Each structure stands twice: as C-alpha cells, then as structure tokens.
Amino acid sequence: MDAVLHALADESRRTVLEILRDRPTSAGELAEALPIARPGVSRHLRVLREAGLVDVRQDAQRRIYTLRPEALVEVDEWLGPYRRLWQTRLDALHTEITRGKKARR
Amino acid sequence: MDAVLHALADESRRTVLEILRDRPTSAGELAEALPIARPGVSRHLRVLREAGLVDVRQDAQRRIYTLRPEALVEVDEWLGPYRRLWQTRLDALHTEITRGKKARR
DNA sequence: CCCGAATGTAACAAGTTGGGTATGTATCCG
DNA sequence: CGGATACATACCCAACTTGTTACATTCGGG
User: Fold this and answer.
1) Please, which residues bridge with residue A56 across strands?
2) Of all nucleotides in the shown strands, which has a C1' nearest the CA of A63?
3) Fold of the domain built from segment(s) A2-71
4) Fewest beta carbons less than 10 Å away: which of A51, A70, A86, B88?
C-alpha cells in the first residue's frame, strides 16, 4: 500500500502508467515521452516495478514494460470506506434537492 | 490531483484521515494518536487542508478537523481507466476458471 | 570477437520532506 | 489584565528525492 501510494505521488511515474495503459512500451520510448533524461526514467521505472505496478520483459537489448493494473486494487480498496462517506453525502445532497423540489411544488 | 496524491503518500496523514472517518477531532487529540510531536502533526494537517482533504472549524482555543471525503473523488476518478483494465483481467480469470470447470466435466 | 544499441547503476548536486525544539498567537477564565 | 491552554509557525538538521553526467552491462550483427 505504502509503496504503491508513494509511487503514485510523482507525476512522471503517473505519466508512465498512463502510457502503459495503451500498450507495452520499451524503456527508451518511455524516456522519449518524458521531459527527463533516460537514467531518471530508469529510476522511476524501478520504483514502479518495486511497487508492483509494472512488469518487465526482456526483448533483445530492450526492456518492455507492461502495466500491472491489479496493483491498483489495493488503492481502490483503501478508498472503500471513504467512498461510502462521500456517496452518503451525495445521497444527502440528492435528498436535499428532492425535498427542495417538493417544497417548491 | 497532485496535491491529494501527495498528501496520501504519507502514513501519518493517512492515519489522520482514518481517525477523522469516525468523527471530527481536535488537533490535540490527533497529535496524541500519532507517534510524533504536535508541531509535526500541525504540519501534516496543513498539507491535508491544502489538499482539500480536511476542513477546520474553530471551537474556543481548539481547532476541530473534519474529513472532506469528496476530495477523494478525484482519486477514484483517476483510478477509473485502470479499474476497467484490472476488471477485464479478473473477468478473463473467471472465464478461465469456468473453462477449467467445463473441461473437468 | 568486437561494435553499437539499449538500458541499468554509481556518484553527485540541489531541492524537498519530516522530525524536533523554541517561539508566536489567540482564546478562555479567574 | 494576566496566566493557562491549544495550536500554529519559524527555524534547524538529517534523510530522502530527483535530476544530471559518467560508466558498466548485456545482447545481436557483421
């Protein structure tokens, strides 16, 4: 959990995940898409790997990174109890609106 | 988005949110619940405030903090496209299991 | 077997974080 | 008014982050 949230706190890393959402991508390609040099990207990839957010596969000299969306399930689960709260608030808001409508009739 | 994810990347801050999930709580009470001294907690509260994750209300000398779960909606929305992916994988897994069962018949 | 391509790692500088202690600041109470 | 209470802020320091450049490593091709 901690590792995943830590990984998500950086915008470059979130950009990487966004790219990988479309298709597996080599480290070099990812580096081109980011405004930083390749070694920096390598380290970001390491963080993502250690958080379990991506997988690597070797293809000749290239490393192909793929997204591992399951790793985000724990974030989703962490959100669970909070989701209930904000949905309750939204429900209350809807009720309020409904009551308002009724009152206006 | 960035501010919220950054705020969530720290465990002390997540603990604060967890406490606030139950009930509004004063800064002092929050500080007692954490393993760090009060000024540190104050700073964490500031980060949470600036990310929109909590609200403060003044009650005499005390500051009462309340959770603002709506701020987490954007995290939920950010998860959206990824959620679809991991659900697809789960579906595939279920299909696989079903096929396995069928094969075993 | 050596060269180039692709990528990771090491080492370093600059900025940021997160903790602590010391010091404001506002509010209630006697 | 003056002291106590409850916080926040200022400042300092050690640890981590993030970017850079230089170097090591690994793989395929001629």
Assistant:
1) A65
2) C7
3) Arc Repressor Mutant, subunit A (1.10.10)
4) B88
> Chain A: residue nearest B69 by CA?
A86
Q: How far is the CA of A65 from the C1' of D29 (A)?
A: 25
Q: What share of chain B is helix, strand, coil (3-state, %, to 5)?
A: 70, 15, 15
Distance, CA of A105 to CA of A80 (rounded, Å)? 38
| Domain spanning B2-69: CATH 1.10.3980.10 | no
- Percent of the residues in chain A that have a pLDDT greater than 90, as a whole number: 81
Give the span between the Cα atoms of A97 and B13, in whole angstroms. Answer: 34
Query: B47-87 pLDDT, tens per residue?
Result: 999 999 999 999 999 999 999 999 999 999 999 999 999 98
Cα–Cα distance for residue pair A12/A36, rounded to 1 Å: 9
Cβ separation B85–A67 shorter than 8 A = yes
Task: Out of B17, B72, B89, name the one closest to residue A70 (CB).
Answer: B89
- Expressed in percent and rounded to 5, the helix, strand and coil fractions of chain A are 70, 15, 15
Q: Which residues contact B61 (CB under 8 A, 6 or more apart)?
A: none
